[in-house]
Amino acid sequence: MGLRELRLKRGLTQQQLADRLGVTRQRIAAIETGQRPIGGVSLDNALAICDALRVSNPRKLLDDAPSPQGD
Q1: What would the pLDDT profile of 21-61 be if each residue is shown by its tens digit?
Q2: Cys bridge to 1: 5, 8, 40, 44, which one at CB 3.0-4.6 A?
Q3: In Å, how far are 3, 27, 36, 39, 59 from 24, measured between CA atoms?
């Protein structure tokens, strides 16, 4: 289950998640589409995403993550 699926499961919009994390909606969209790979997110940001989505296992963010465009 990737970021998009986890976000939708929690009933959050991209904007709501972005507000919780203190980032732009565009950054969330870029991560969800693979333009900004979740694997490249810092540990601090990955943990903040997990906290915002109430995810105990950060590996769930990597499951089904889209590949960067052009690959």
Answers
A1: 999 999 999 999 989 988 888 888 889 999 999 999 888 88
A2: 5
A3: 15, 5, 13, 18, 23
